[in-house]
Each structure stands twice: as structure tokens, then as C-alpha cells.
Amino acid sequence: MQEEESLVKRALQGDQMAFARLYEEYFDKIYRYVAIRIGDKTEAEDMTQQVFLKAVKSISSFKWRGIPFSAWLFRIAHNQVVDYLRKKKKQPTTLFDESLVSHNTSPELMAERSLDIQQLQLATRRLTDAQREVISLRFAGGLSVAEVSRIMGRSQGAVKALQHSAIVALRKILLVGNDEEVQRI
User: pLDDT over 70 for what percent of the chain?
Assistant: First the structure.
């Protein structure tokens, strides 16, 4: 946290190398979050670049208050996603993009994962927007409950409750789906 604070202070003073290090540190996390929320790799790359462009343009408005810089970046990303979804007038359709999964495995395992990812994608469509948001931030973005709380503007208890209800809902949806699959066989 101290190193991040030091980098942010240097970036605030116009140190481009400091901002470049922040960019390298957070680009992948922001990209995964955006890709999961919108379900389009190419668009996610463009949007992630836009997040960092907005960040560099408005970094002078960032005030260090003990809140991680990443929370500020995720808030920008969240706003970008919301704007994108409003323009598209559709809900996010995926939780995981298959290209985000490591492909250093056997073809059998890759096929199994592909089926699991497809089931998960279908299951997440049945979650509420808030549940999808929490799942995306926590598991794709790798953020703590406290960070998700700040980004979503909800209490930590509310975030924990949303995460719990989303996981329970996914578990039920996936179990019912598996039971239906077994019955068809």
C-alpha cells in the first residue's frame, strides 16, 4: 500500500513512469472485470484503454485518503461498463470469457472447462445486476469486500450478503441444470 501511495503521489506530480507502473499493475485486473461484465474481448480492450485514458486525464482530482488507487480505477471502469450497457440496451451475458482461462492443459480438460464455462454463463444470466457486479469485482477483479463496497457504494455487509446470495443462486441453478442433464440421459 505504501508503494502504491508513493506511485500515486509521483503520478500526481506528472511522473509518467509512475503512472506507467500503475497501469502495468492494474491493466489485467481492469480488463478481466470489463470483459466479464460486457462479454466482448475486443470491446473490453478498448474500454480498458479508455479507463486508463480517463484516469490519466483526471488523476489530478484523485485525493489519497487511504483508499486503494485500484478502487478509483474500478469505479471508472464500472461507470464505463454502465454507459456501454446503456448504449447497447442489453444485459451482460457472460461471467467468464474462455480466452481468460489457461490453455496449457489437455484437450479433454479444455473441452470440460468449455462446457463448465458455458453452463456458468447461462447461470449468471439469471442473477440480478448487483449479484453479477459483486461476482465480477470479487472474482474477476480480485478485489476485497472492502474495495467492492467502496466501488458499489454499499456497506461491506451488503456486499457480503450479495456475494453469498449470488453464490447460493449459482449453486442452485447449476445443480438443477446438472439434474436435468442426468434425467435426459
Answer: 77
Q: Can you give the pLDDT at residue 27? A: 93
Q: Which domains does the chain have, with CATH numbers?
A: 2-184 (1.10.1740.10)
Asked if 122 and 42 touch (Cβ cutoff 8 Å), the reply is no
Per-position b or e across 15-24, b if 16+ CB within 10 A of its CB: eeebbebbbe
Task: Give the pLDDT of residue 112.
Answer: 56
B/e letters for 125-142, b = 16+ CB within 10 Å, e = fewer, are eebeeebbbbbbbbbbbe
Cell of 181: 442433464
55 neighbors 159 (Cβ within 8 angstroms)? no
Distance CA 16, CA 14 (A): 6
Contact 37, 121 (CB under 8 A): no
| Residue 122: strand, helix, or coil | helix
DSSP label at residue 100: G
pLDDT single digits (tens) 71-95? 889 989 999 998 998 887 654 444 4
Nearest-5° Cα angle at 149, 121 to 78: 55
pLDDT for residue 109: 60
